[in-house]
Specification:
45% helix; rod-shaped; single chain
Length: 164
């Protein structure tokens, strides 16, 4: 007889057992990825990093990888995809990741462009620009009155007398 399938129970899938030891080197990520059945391209598409970056992480070619928060994000996402804890990997890569000071509220990150020292130079102000703009506006209005482009009701008699 044919075997009856129980359609009321949820689907069950088998997955590779979680690793017993902690993954502490980026080089061991490749073996775990292969054991899970993922290709480099699969991982790259899911993590939104290039396959070149995934291969560089797995081969521990850190010079070609982004630094700072981008590397931390890559390691965390990759560890989450593989179902492992990212903390040991982050500790191993701490020199490349750095530490976050402040956070988003302070707009600081470890990937800063260096210290910025801004000297306050006395500003001459914007008054030359204001004078120039006023002269241009007065010139345009003068031409408009002279050419008769403005209605007579808008132009006072004394201004109209200047241009006649």
């Amino acid at each position: 007889m044919s075997e009856q399938l129980d359609l009321s129970s949820p689907l069950r899938t088998e997955s590779a057992p979680a690793p017993k030891e902690l993954i502490t080197s980026a080089g061991s990520l490749r073996a775990l990825r292969v054991s899970k059945g993922f290709s480099t391209e699969d991982v790259a598409v899911r993590l939104k990093f290039s396959a070149r970056h995934i291969e560089a992480l797995e081969s521990e070619s850190f010079d070609t990888l982004p630094q700072g928060l981008a590397l931390r994000s890559m390691v965390r996402s990759y560890a989450k995809l593989l179902g492992i804890d990212s903390k040991p990997l982050e500790a191993t890569l701490q020199a490349r990741i750095g530490s976050v000071q402040g956070g988003i509220a302070n707009h600081t990150s470890t990937r800063s462009l260096g210290t910025h020292h801004v000297e306050h130079v006395p500003h001459s102000g914007g008054w030359p620009w204001v004078v120039l703009i006023c002269l241009i506006v007065l010139t345009v209005l003068g031409i408009a009155v002279w050419q008769g482009l403005l209605p007579a009701a808008m132009v006072p008699d004394w201004i109209e007398a200047l241009f006649k």
